[in-house]
Design a protein that fits this description.
This protein is α/β, with parallel strands linked by helices. About 60% of the residues lie in helices and about 15% in strands. Strands 8-9-10-11-12-13-14-15 form an 8-stranded mixed beta barrel, surrounded by 5 helices. Helix 5 packs parallel to helix 7.
Amino acid sequence: MQLKRVLGLDKPNAHVAKAKLTVMSRHVPLLYFVICVNAILLSYVHYGRAPLALTLIVPGAIVAACGTRALIWFRRGDQHVPTEVAVQRLRMLAILTAGFAALIFGWTLQLASYGDLHTRHYAIMFLAVTVICCIFCLMQLRLAIFLLALIVVVPLSAMLLLDREPTTAAMGFNFVLVCAAILYVTTMASFDFENMIDAQVATQELSDENARLADLDTLTGLSNRRLLLRHIGACQRLGEPVAMGILDLDGFKAINDNYGHKVGDLLIRQWAEEMPAIVGERCFLARLGGDEFALVKSGHQAARRIEEAAKRILGRMQTPFRIGERTLSVGATIGLTIARDEGVDAGELMRQADVAMYAAKCAGKGRFQWFDEELDRDRAFAHRIEGELRDAIDEDRFSLVYQPIIDARTGGIQTVEALLRWDRGDLSEIGPAQFIPIAEETGLIDRLGLWVLRRACQDADAWPEVRLAVNVSAAQLRNPDFSRNVAAILAECRFPPARLELEITETYLLRDPEVAQTVVGQLTAIGVGVVLDDFGTGYASVGFLRQLPFNKLKIDRSLIESVGTNPATRAIVQASVAVARSLDMAVVAEGIETEAQATLMRLVGCDLLQGWYFSRACDAAQISRLLDRQVWASG
């Protein structure tokens, strides 16, 4: 096997064969040209001394054959051909080399016999120079140069070395030495050439693989952001409308937190495998990172087709994923947008889809939403409010008001609820329902929430006979330091933990039940009361209420509004009170605006009542006066 490789009898690989053919296409025409010139000169030297057949007919045939072959090689150039064709042409070249070598060697020997010693030595020089030129021109084709050596170099060397004339024998020794060196050098160069081609091919393959991987997501094999942007640009250059969706998996973070990133990766990979069949044909898919994906459709029906794909995705999310032995449920929120011309570039298209996706999340997740200009105006408003919020926190431009919560039996103030207000000077008023979500999104809620708790504790220190209720944002509860921060503020203000109640919404309880259980347990451990706020809006089960140590249950105002006219609502409220009683929880009815509502809530068994019917929210000084009058009246 090694000998076959040295002699060039093994089959070269595709890249090496094509590379050798490319080199030969440049060298062989030159070789034929040299042979033609040398043949003409040799025949000229022997013209008149040798027969015309040797000085005209044979060299004419050699020149014609070499010229024809040179023209064929010149016209082919370095054109790309299949591997089989390249191998076939190289083998044909080796065979023709052997044929031409035998013909020229025999012809030269015949001519040498008709001249004197001088012309004989010229013939020998002709053979030697021609052989050396052939070896160098054909060095990448080892089979050809070894055939050349076997047919010409070996017999010529033997003839010269065995010649009785000393000069000729010396020429023979010199010829053998030079040819041996040249054969060694060219053979090694041929191997180096093949190794170089193999290295270039390996390097190119590695470069191509790196380029491919640079455009792919390593976890899923889907396209990445880089290739996505190029694809959108290519579609737009064709003048096609381009519709894009950005999809975010709802609840994926909880899976990572609860089961680890390995399970999360398996879920991402399974979803990526399912997506092509769900979104249909002619849909470009990409993973943007984490649990965020993109889908792109182009063409005149792009908007309709991408909306249909979004609906199919949401339908698929109704069925849990099976990962090993686990059954995992996630949802999806999708933002959609469309660019009908090149005026909206790929980056802007992604931004619009992302804005729409965020708006869909704020609207409740598990849905899709199209981008429109109003969303941009909302984002601009949120950005402006964020800057004002930062300044307001630094400059202490917030204030608190308090709304009394009345004992349903005695009519006295049992608790006051702290409510945040933002003094924007001459600017329009913005309520908590507008700026609290922005504070949550930007991370300002932690500073703002702690400010509210500290100021409320300081104000309520003057009202030892009542409890203090403070609303807590879901974003605050997700902060692992929240319980420690509450304990620190209570210690700083010397406020009894038993007088503090923190209100947690039912929506947060349903969204993050495990985190909620941990936080409620920590707050209860430091002696703080926990109230389940807005009960009746999120369908919390009795199981949740049994697992968490709530002190109070607060019935949402939306139920209070229709309790007097809707029997079903009245039944829900009565059932809620019964459940709270069984779990030893007090019940608060908020949003009471009429005497009829207050009377009805007393009848169904509510312990505490809150609403404008009893008192609007007022500042700390007014609360002090209300409490003073209450003490005076009871006295």
